[in-house]
Design brief:
The chain has 287 residues and is mainly beta. The chain has one helix at residues 114-117, and strands at residues 2-4, 29-30, 39-47, 53-61, 63-68, 71-72, 89-95, 103-112, 134-143, 146-152, 158-161, 164-168, 172-176, 189-190, 192-193, 201-203, 219-222, 228-231, 251-255, 260-261, 264-265, 276-280. Helix content is 1%, strand content 38%. The protein is globular.
């Protein structure tokens, strides 16, 4: 945990879209030894005065998301998107002033393989750009008209195995809700510093990927084999939202496809893509 006095040292000019990469103090942190699930990186920090403004710059080797005090930062998904990591690494800037509180704060980030290290193409290619999943994050705060780094990824961060057991673009996601909460006092594991030049960092110019619509199903029915089929009436890209309750450890399996074949879900055109989501219940109320 770090304690920051915003009125003291390392004050500078306001972060701008064209600030030079040498002004980064953050480093990519990752895990070279994979655990049983996706890594969740975390850092606690203490604020003695609330800043007048705060911005988070973030990106991933992989795809991921950031939380501050349990709230997901921004509304985009699959950050930072598909790019040529050997040439550039796009980062985003998010206004996070409203997420900070006086006293103890927590910033967390979860990283999946995505286009960086996951499976791509028809020939089972993996790790096209690299193998070490990592996050880069720097939170800058404004106090008395000046800006200073408040918290940033470095060797003081820790990580733990999170609730997402697996996540692949072609194969889907497995989430174990029993692992969602970190037990009080459980120590984190040390992170690895991943050597990546900040010269590759560029603020993203194009629009991000966002959820833009909630699509209700047009038909729910059972196939001849008793499978529950949910038809959304069109081909789409997104996530299925479910509301379930049951015993701890019970698993809900959602299989995705574009067509029916013989009255059943047509998975043959998917080739080797599993396109399957699994949700393992915590057993606590409605989930």
């Amino acid at each position: 945990m770090t304690t920051t006095d915003l009125s003291q040292s390392r004050l500078g000019d306001r972060p701008t879209a064209d600030r030079h990469p040498t002004e980064w103090v953050a480093q990519f942190v990752g895990v070279r030894r994979r655990g049983p699930s996706l890594p969740v990186f975390r850092q606690e920090f203490v604020i003695d005065r609330l800043p007048s403004a705060a911005e988070l710059r973030s990106t991933f080797l992989g795809v991921g998301k950031v939380w501050i005090n349990g709230v997901v930062v921004g509304d985009e998904v699959l950050e930072p998107g598909w790019q040529s990591y050997g040439h550039r690494i796009a980062y985003r800037v998010s206004d996070v002033g409203s997420l900070l509180t006086l006293g103890r704060n927590l910033i967390e980030a979860e990283v999946a393989a995505g286009w960086y290290a996951g499976r791509l193409g028809f020939f089972e290619q993996r790790e096209i750009y690299g193998s070490d999943l990592a996050v880069l994050a720097q939170l800058d705060a404004q106090m008395d008209g000046q800006w200073a780094p408040l918290v940033w990824t470095d060797s003081s961060w820790t990580w733990r195995s999170g609730p997402t057991l697996d996540a692949e673009l072609y194969d889907g996601e497995t989430y174990d809700a029993r692992r969602a909460d970190l037990p009080a006092g459980e120590p984190g594991l040390p992170v690895d510093l991943i050597p990546v030049s900040t010269e590759k960092l560029e603020q993203r110019l194009g629009p991000p990927v966002r959820r833009t619509e909630t699509v209700p199903p047009v038909q729910i029915f059972r196939s001849a084999t008793g499978r529950v089929l949910v038809d959304f009436g069109r081909n789409l890209v997104g996530w299925v939202r479910i509301r379930v309750s049951g015993a701890a450890g019970q698993e809900i399996v959602l299989r995705h496809a574009e067509v029916l074949e013989g009255g059943e879900l047509g998975t043959r055109p998917l080739r080797t893509a599993q396109a399957t989501d699994r949700y393992i219940l915590s057993g606590v109320g409605e989930e």
